[in-house]
Amino acid sequence: MGWTLEQLRTLAALADSGTMAAAAVELGYTPGAVSQQMAALSAAAGRPLLVRAGRRVELTDDGRLLLAGAREVLAADERARSALAAPRADRRAAVTLGVFGSAASAGFGPATALLRRRAPWVDVRAVEVDVERALDAVTAGPGRSPLDLALGLDHPDSPSPPVAGVTAVPLLTEQYAVVGASGSLPREPGALRAVMDEADWVLPPLDTAFGRAARTACARAGVSPAVRHVVTDTAVSLALAESGAGLTLATPLMLALRPTRCDTAALPDPSGGAQRRVVALVRDAAAQREAVQLVLTALLDAFGGPDVAPARGRARAGAAERSA
């Protein structure tokens, strides 16, 4: 049934006025145009909608049934038009954003604060995701609603393959550092390499992007890490390193997840050390929405752009995260 809004509007006007002439005046049509609209609507419905009653017309039972639905459709159309015509401050546009531990603690608060000032009509709704599955959360699958965008990670030493329909926008590049108990890490590269080679290690599993990237970074530094503790939770990894159970790798955002007295030292890597990129994974279809673009701009400003942040300094309290 392929009727149009104009045909439904004509049906409602005719039901209210009772004559073709009166409906034509109300709609700004000619009586002939009203008749044509009703004939097309009857054809689309596949049954008669009007009967003559002297100089007036009345709706058939099918016409009355269709009229009830037509009024609902016309009211919904009016609400939609009113919403678009309303001042921007009166609108609400929901944007779903996937987040994970360290990136959420560093960027979500500043980004939403910027949006409250710039575009208070944008309603950002955070959804926690496993950073290893951030791409899946954006692309989703049958029967699942995809997120508009998600914070994710990209490791140059273990790059993610491109996915059609999704763009990765760099937000921040961080340098990994070696992390160990207080006073355990020498600064001289040769001595540090010897400590790294002899120590136990706390690293994520090899089947995670961070786990692969960490082992590659150690190999580039001339070290084959003896992984004694396989841990995906960053806060737990830092706690074990602080206790002297082993060394691990971490970035500034990761170190900010919990207060720690750990030592940190730059990787003895001639190529400049291992990095990770915090990215925004954006569905190309969602990126066409103004609200999503505003959220993306706020994230870029909150993270300060993709410049490299060296891993050094003490951390503050925060929540734990997995593989990040």
From TrEMBL:
Domain HTH lysR-type: 3-60
CC annotations in GO: protein-DNA complex
One GO MF term: DNA binding
Classification via Gene3D superfamilies: 3.40.190.290, Winged helix-like DNA-binding domain superfamily/Winged helix DNA-binding domain (1.10.10.10)
Presence of keyword Transcription regulation: yes
Keywords tagged on the record: DNA-binding, Transcription, Transcription regulation
PANTHER family on file: LYSR SUBSTRATE-BINDING (PTHR30346:SF29), TRANSCRIPTIONAL DUAL REGULATOR HCAR-RELATED (PTHR30346)
InterPro entries referenced in this protein's UniProt entry, alphabetically: LysR_HTH_N, LysR_subst-bd, WH-like_DNA-bd_sf, WH_DNA-bd_sf
Protein name: LysR family transcriptional regulator
Family of this protein: Belongs to the LysR transcriptional regulatory family.
Organism from which the protein derives: Quadrisphaera setariae
Presence of keyword Cell membrane: no
Pfam families recorded: HTH_1, LysR_substrate
Domain of life: Bacteria
